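Figure S4 source data
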Amino acid sequence: MQPELQNSTGNSTGKRGKKNIIIISLIVFSLLMLATSAQLIYMTLKYDRVYKGVYINGMDAGGMAQVELALALKSRFQDKIKDLEITLDSGRIVEKASYTDLNVSYVMDNAVKDAFSLGRTGNMFKRLYAIFNAGLKGANVDMPLSYDKGKLDNFISEFHKKTLIEVKEAEILIQDDKVTIRTGRHGENIDKNSLTSTLNEMINSFKGGTVKVEIIITPPNKLDAEDLFPQLNREPVNAAFKVLDGNISVEPHITGMKIEKTALEDIVADLEKNENTEMVLPVQYILPEITTEKANEMVFKDQIAYMSTHFSTSNENDKNRGENIKLATSKINGIILIPGAVFSFNDVVGPRTEADGYKLAHTYVAGKVIDGIGGGICQVSTTIYGAVLKSDLEVIERRNHMFTVGYVPYGQDATVSYGTTDFRFRNSTNWPIKIEAGVNKDNNVFFKFIGTIENPEKKVIISQEILKRIPFTTKYIDNPTMLEGKTSVKQEGKEGYVVDTFKTIKISGKVISETKLHTSTYRPLTEEILRGTKKPEATDQMPAATPAPTSTPQTGVDDADNPPAE
């Protein structure tokens, strides 16, 4: 029985030994594996080349040293830049630019550094993760391109200039003797922004080749007969006149034009079928009555009227009147009236004041003769009125004196008073009128109207008809400083009148028209006689009665600048 016990114990001890051997073997294996792994990790982390799975722009960089990688990139990419070019083709214009022209180059140094640094930054675990991840999945490093954007822009701009065709719109050329109509031409253009985007993408993708550039067509505006018709149909316009700095200038005439609308519509429809064609239109030209040439030849050609009146300078009052007449006349001399212009006596002559150089002279006010500033001015307005009547001009405003004046026929006078009564007329002819005015050595105030006589056979006749005479009354005024029986005329009397004035127009001796211009009513001026009432002394001899002198009408008195008192 004993031997059996020994065998059992021996077997048990053998089993335990085998188990320990296995455990020890596993421990030794694990330690070996750890040592191996540590060695592998150490070797991996100490690797001096680009790790496996790293790519630069698609090129496998794994296992390369930095210098080797730089050479490979240069050979694979940079050296090929000189072989790449971009061609722009519009179908009509072809332009090329090489990558070298655009200064295209790769930024290789940074790409090499980035590829080599992958798996070499961070702690051990981050590095190992990056290394193993690159090996399993791959890691791409971008190698950016650089290029001169200014040169690229210039390349595109130059292509744009060569391909650009500006739209040429249809036009109409109006000349002195013909009208030419020209059809337009389409324009061609490119989208510079879109082309710039395409080329940027090509360069960044390291691609060359031909780019078919789309041409944008812009058609011209269509001719429109409705719009053209008013331009080709206009009335002729006479040459016009204007006064600049006291001188006359001629504004050119406008020639009239006429074309049938249906003819214009047919021509436009036919021309629209083709670009860059032209045709002379069947336009009829119509000259105006007064062309520029005629205006220059005819202006201020004739003396159309002359009027003068005489004044006296025999006494102080008359001399003052003469000075007033000269002053007022000088302000009118040289005035130019273009057709349609209105002459205002008060506007031209201005206020009649001592400050303006006017003197005291007799005037009529409220039925009496008194001294007033500017006496005599009405002789100037009356004289120019006579020239206006002879010229057959349109009278806008005229008023007769309160009493008759002796220097023109009744019904042909014109009074003025600054601020209340004006004399105004219009140049109703087709030509400018220049007024020449002055006072000659014989004390005649005169007006010449220089213009253009359109009809030499035309005659203007001014006449009047006295409808009524109104006798003046005599008023005696007692004078205690004069002896009884003596008299003296203080104010001469004047008869009053009602007078119609007429204008007759004759051409070649034939009466064309006869017009009543106006009715003038003149008041009678009361005669005033001083009558002596002083009794003679005993020693005085009674004188014979002195008859009132017979006087002539007073021609040196008018109601200038003094409105009649109603």
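Figure S5 source data
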Amino acid sequence: MSVGKPVSELGRVVSEFRPVFVRSAVFTAVASLLVLMPSWYMLEVYDRVVNSRSHLTLAMLTLLVLMSYVVMEVLEWARSEMLFDASTGFESRLAQRVFRLMFQANLRRMPGGNLQPMTDLRTIRDFMHSPAVVAVMEAPVSLVFLALIFAIHPLLGWVATGAAVLQVLVGWLNERGTQPPLLQANRMAMAAQQMADGALRNAQVIEAMGMLQNVRRGWLQRQREFLGLQAVASDRAGGFQAVSKFLQNTVGSALLGLSCWLLLHNQLHGGAAMLIVSGILGGRVLAPLVQVVTQWRSVVNARDAWMRLGSLLSQVPEGVSTMALPPPAGHLMVEALVAGAPGQPQAILKGVSFGLAAGEALAVVGPSAAGKTTLARMLVGLWPAISGKVRLDGADVFGWNKEELGPRVGYLPQGVDLFEGTVAENIARFGDVDRDRVQAAAQMVGLHDLIEALPQGYETQIGPDGAVLSGGQRQRVALARALYGDPVLVVLDEPNSSLDEAGDAALSRALQQLKARGATLVVMTHRMSVLAAVDKMLLLRDGQAQAFGPRDEVLAAISKANQSAQARPQGAAA
């Protein structure tokens, strides 16, 4: 027994709205059949009213056709509302998942770690109520029209079938001709957008060092390539659309002329009236295909968005809900940890092991590129390990639900990122602002008086990336955010890199207060001022633990190793 291909996550979500699409298709079929009412009305007026000269017949026919118009418009309106509701429901169903997906992909250094997944979701949403989808729903009715043409005369049916095959061929050629430049154009558009975003993020560096002209040149090159490829695709698509409409217009006249020829030879079933009917039906047979060709760019965009988003969803599956764990006490254990940047084959950390009891403070030291920042990310569960584990109270930190663990953890990355909002909102991690806890965190890092001096105090808007604050102020706000809520595990990556002497002293006091509260501390640092507040030290070099233990013992070992390294060249020279 063969096993079918598993349904993708996007496919499962779309299937939830299948009843809506089925009802929409039924409404579309009825409305498409009612499109023939004007032609029927015209034939009946010529046949019945003109010959009988009956005002009552004319009135009844007019009333009937008006009622059909009302029904047709109501059905189309209802179909439009149902498809729109289904598309918005589809987006609502996936919005939170895609929002989390972007962050997960970014943490794992995957291609979708940007705003593209959200754009793809909107593209699919818009396509779900687009004319192209309506054209697909009208396709079964086209088969009914084709059957009616065959009933009038098989020759007419085969001509209409041949025209439909030609329309399909035009659609296939349109796909082959426009897909490559459209795909390349989308890539260049994203590249140009990313370069523009990068330029805005680094505006100060660009302005200070006169890089704007070079950056603008690179952006313009990508933009020109994007516009050129888009123009190529547009020209090709326009040509195929013209051919498609030509076929639709031609087939109606061809069927009319062929019907007349058959009538002259007494071979047209239904009499002279079928001359007009066959031409009208021929145009309706090709209408959905013409609509699809006309809307082909939206079809291609939706298909590409579906493939990109579906692939990313499959690569980053939704986390399985696990049993809630009790709040951690702070016992940290790193077991033979081998880790590197996601997506990169080489390991940065190579078998690092150590343990901290709850309330202990550790300083991680070592030269640049020793693996300190990677270790910081691993300790808070940002990156998966190649092998080994990071455990907090015995539980794997990476697999721990971050919505549960996050409020118990304080993390200050090496690159400080603040968000547009107030000072209080940033310190409170954009949750419910508890003014007492916000002020306590600010006071712990010596920031309270500086905040009170701002125009609106804690309610001061700091702008994008904290633009109204200095570098040291931004780092201290981020430090206060890390300490907000009395976390049991605090990981600080170079917390004093932008601090002045007063800020450095405030940091040392904050670390002492955290130790007194029983928090477990890990500080990555190059500066000796932090060492007075720690119990243990870990020396990293080339991703390996060179020394670990009580602070004074490790300092003595480092000093002895330095003295030996300095004496060795002298002995060699002697």
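The domain at 332-573 is CATH 3.40.50.300 (Rossmann fold). The longest helix spans residues 55-107.
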